[in-house]
Design a protein that fits this description.
Elements lengths: L11 H9 L9 E4 L2 E3 L9 E4 L4 E4 L7 H10 L7 E5 L5 H4 L2 H8 L2 E4 L1 H8 L25 E2 L6 E3 L2 E7 L8 E8 L6 E6 L22 H15 L5 E3 L27 H17 L13
Parallel strand pairs: 4-5, 5-6, 6-7, 11-12
Antiparallel strand pairs: 1-2, 2-3, 3-4, 8-9, 9-10, 10-11
Helix pairs in contact: 6-7
The structure holds zinc ion (ZN).
Length: about 300
């Protein structure tokens, strides 16, 4: 099934179902690239396990209540949490770093995040979230500390994988995106893989941009607009979503969860970024086109 690659929103009914019972969001793992599996265990959260050939890299973890589902998914994908050597965090929200401490305790891995995200973690700002929005049932994130900050000039290497990081503020000041190549030994084909670390635009709404405490600054908003444009020209074969329903991923998970080929879709990356850019440009022009059921990322 081809990706329709337009970002699908959960319907009001789907969201209500998730709020009603946390386990309604359960999701089994699936493969998204030759050596990458989606292991969050949750239909709305995306955490990726990369098999480097010399240990595992885990990108993000779900909200704390989903610890068990994350661990279960790692095993079901055929791996062991104790083999995680590096844990990379996209940004400091609890639906992205909920199990950072758990993973550290299970594996002794090294935790990476951006300096800017750590700064926000130390000095959190409250995000006003209307009832029925946000992450259902999310409790407090157990404390952890990063071992390293990203240096965008120094790629992170482990085994066969080299990840280039890029600070991409807007959703929060510390959002970090990841880029790497992944080769399928069976076919000899190499794919460019990209993950934007946080595309949520609520902090850039006209009524929030430039407003303390948690609105994005005008500079961050403008940088987001420019960066989405620049990034959209990158040659990305496989787009990893920072929430699973970006790029209409959920609707396109194949029956064979080991088959990553439906996710090879070079148009998904530019379409996703240009849609986000257009929305924030509307914000900059003063239109508050923020929809009531917009999901945060
Ligand atoms: Zn977020």
């Amino acid at each position: 099934m081809p990706l329709t690659f337009y970002r699908s929103e959960f319907s009001v009914e789907e969201r209500e179902k998730m709020f009603e019972n946390i386990w309604n969001a359960r999701q089994e793992p699936y493969r998204v690239a030759p050596h990458v599996w989606m292991v969050s265990g949750h239909i709305d959260q995306s955490d990726f396990l990369i098999d480097t050939g010399d240990g595992l890299i885990l990108i993000d973890t779900p909200q704390p209540e989903y610890d068990y589902a994350l661990i279960d998914s790692i095993y079901k994908a055929g791996f062991k949490p104790s083999d995680i050597k590096l844990h990379l965090i996209t940004h400091e929200h609890g639906d992205h770093d909920g199990a950072a401490r758990l993973i550290k305790e299970l594996s002794g891995c090294k935790i990476y995040m951006s300096r800017e995200s750590w700064e926000r973690k130390l000095h959190p700002v409250n995000r006003p979230m209307p009832k029925g929005r946000g992450v259902p049932h999310m409790g407090a994130v157990p404390e952890y500390e990063p071992d390293e900050f990203y240096d965008d000039d120094t790629p992170i290497k482990l085994g066969n994988i080299t990840i280039r990081t890029l600070l991409t503020p807007g959703h929060t000041p510390g959002v970090t995106s990841f880029f790497f190549d992944d080769t399928d030994e069976k076919t000899g084909k190499t794919y460019h893989v990209g993950m934007h670390g946080g595309l949520g635009i609520d902090a850039m709404r006209p009524d929030r941009c430039g407003v303390e405490p948690w609105g994005a600054t005008v500079e961050e908003r403008d940088r987001y607009i420019d960066q989405c444009w620049e990034l959209s020209m990158m040659d990305i074969d496989i787009t990893l979503a920072s929430h699973s329903n970006q790029a209409n991923i959920n609707a396109n998970i194949p029956e064979d969860r080991n088959d990553y080929t439906p996710f090879i879709e070079p148009r998904a990356w530019p379409v996703m970024l240009l849609e986000r850019r257009a929305r924030v440009m509307e914000f900059r022009a003063g239109a508050n086109t923020y929809y009531g059921n917009e999901k945060r990322m």
